[in-house]
Amino acid sequence: MIHRNSSRKKKLKKRLSELYYSNYVRFGIFLPLFFLFAVYTTYYYEKGKSLASIGDSYFYNLFAFITGVVRFSAVTPQGRIIQLATSIVRLCFFGTIFAKISAFLISNQTQKEKGLSKLKNMSKHFLLCGWKPSMEKIIEAVLKANPDLTPDQIVLINEAPSEQIAQIRSQQAYKDINYIAGDFSNGEVLKKALVNTAERALIISDSSNYARGGNPLDADSRTVLAVLAIKSLNPSIYVAAELYDSKFESHLNLAHCDEIILTSEYEQNLLATASSGKGFSNVIRAMLGNDIHAGVFIEPIQNKYFGKTYGEFAAEQNNVNGKKALLIGLLLNTGNFQRRRLDAIREAHKNPNVEKVIDNLIKVKTLKSNEPKFLPDDDFVLKTGMMAIFVKVKDEVKDEDSNY
Predict the structure, then answer these.
(1) Which among 45, 33, 40, 89 is positioned nearest to 65, based on CA atoms?
(2) Which ranges constitute the DSSP H helices of 203-353?
């Protein structure tokens, strides 16, 4: 008990000492005392000459200190000296205040530019985690693929050199992009990016760690940790992640990653098919190119079609779109994993048969995110959580001289 009281006294003594030596406290004590000294000494020397009462001395000194405008002229030498001293103290006081405000604003701006400050008042934004040398092209592609997304809704999270980030933000198109510096698998860094209110996140295999002696396996491990951290902080966020090695895919599935991009596997398959000499790579390029009016499109299905068969839906879509858009299949279990699971559990409990309920709950555990199903049977029933896959072509402008 004695030791505890002694520790409290030491802490109190330390706090009082810090308070005593604080410049703010000293200035806060000095300023009122100096003001009272100026009021009373001015009145003492100027009484009956330029000041009629002590109230006048209070008013004129306060007015002069705040505005810098002197409403009376001292007659005595002592009064003039006090007026001069008051002006000097006023300049020092307001100079210090403005310097502190300027330093605070500059510090905030510097921290924001370096990605050290926490974001404020953002929701439904897009997190772009990781770094690649072709980051500008990735950002451009993200904006093209998401017409509803604006640069100020994108948040970059990486450990790239600040000069490279500054180079991107120096461009007029990307000047409003937000930036958080740090490890995107760290929870505190993600909180700075307001991950709890974000709508989507894209994790790209970070190549900035190669400069620190890293390798693709390290990048994949970091990606898995990032997905776990993001999903723990915001289970409803939609996360897409890039991997180099497919052996990490099972870890991302356990972390409920909504979309997994196996870059190296895609590259290997593309090279292998190109070796057949059938032009397969050109087909893939045309279907996944930068043309926003042509290629493969995934679109939502109107609620009125749920409960109907794929054959009925396909017949109506092909009649409406003609040859400009062709339905080739469905994408099952779309959207956020957490929401899909809750919806599936609700549907499973609607069945009065206990055995079927158990079977349906088992199926819920085996749901595969964003599973494509090409050309299903005509009697395949459409359900919520499905989207339609189309191949579209761009309308060509007919040349009036083409008939000649």
Answers:
(1) 89
(2) 216-233, 249-254, 263-274, 280-287, 310-321, 337-349
Helices (H), 114-159: 135-145
Quote the tokens at residue 141.
Answer: 């592609």
- The answer to whether 257 touches 369, Cβ cutoff 8 Å, is yes
Q: Give the predicted TM-score (pTM) of the model.
A: 0.66
Check if the beta carbon of residue 387 is closer than 8 Å to that of residue 302.
no
Amino acid at site 249: E
CA distance 295 to 292: 8
Q: Tell me the C-alpha distance between 62 and 50, whole Å.
A: 16
pLDDT 10s per residue in the chain (404 long)?
Answer: 555 566 777 777 777 776 666 677 777 788 888 888 888 888 888 888 888 888 888 888 888 888 878 777 888 888 888 888 888 888 888 888 888 888 888 877 777 777 778 888 899 999 999 988 888 899 998 998 888 899 999 999 998 888 888 889 888 889 889 999 999 999 999 999 999 999 999 999 876 665 555 677 888 889 999 999 999 999 889 999 999 888 888 888 888 888 888 887 777 777 887 777 777 778 777 777 666 677 888 889 998 999 899 999 988 887 776 667 888 899 988 876 666 666 666 666 666 666 666 666 666 666 677 788 899 999 999 988 889 998 888 765 455 444 44
- Please give the DSSP secondary-structure letter assigned to residue 197: G
Structure tokens at 116: 């050290």
Fill in the DSSP letter of residue 55.
Answer: H
Rounded Cα distance between 86 and 73, Å, is: 13
- Dihedrals phi, psi of 327, to nearest 5 degrees: -75, 125
Do 218 and 209 touch, CB atoms closer than 8 A?
yes
Cβ neighbour number for residue 93 with a 10 Å cutoff: 15
- Of residues 278, 291, 230, 218, the one with CA closest to residue 257: 230
Cβ atoms of 203 and 239 within 8 Å: the answer is yes
